[in-house]
Amino acid sequence: MLKRQRNDTSSKAQFNSKPHKVKKADSKGVYKTIEYDSFEELSFLYWAFELKNQGVIKSIRRSPCYLLSDALINNYALALKTKSKPMEQKILNGHSYTPEFVIEWDYKKAKDRVIHVLGNQTKWENPIIAQMTEDGSYISHIEIKPLWDQNNMERLFKINMKWMWQRHGIYVNLIKPQELFPHSFTPKEYLVTKTGHQRKLKWKAKTIYDFLNNK
After folding, report:
1. pTM of this prediction exceeds 0.85
2. Where are the domains of the chain?
């Protein structure tokens, strides 16, 4: 006769009996020596490096940090028995902002299909805005955001975007890969998931060749 066993009610047994959620793959890493902090950033790097392989982009790098607001410091003198001591209090912290990427373009290869250069007196129609620097380089600053911004960080970015222009004369492009790809091309590496399956798209994928040749 089989003995009926009592249910194990320990906390360990209860934990093991619960369905476990599958942990999402780490969204941070390094792609071709460039660090990324989200799948959206990685998706953009796929796109940018395909253009780099065609000579349209000269270089891709992480952006430096920019100071947008100085700290507010209150200086005062602390009276001691025989002398005074200079002191300071921080009333407001400074505010800084760091875009995701800086891209340098090959102007001749990028100007017709990829970039619009500020100040060239033509209508803005190409995907990304670039600026010519004092040394004659063509540079774009890039901010990456997902389509769905659950933490409302896009609102904060748009304030930083205005102050970047006001204080440093730098325009920062807001890029959402799932909006960029349908209007340009879909990089090959994006088409396949990490598990080797074909990624489901809500748009018709165009190759970089068709995009650059206006097909």
Report:
1. no
2. 27-63+98-212
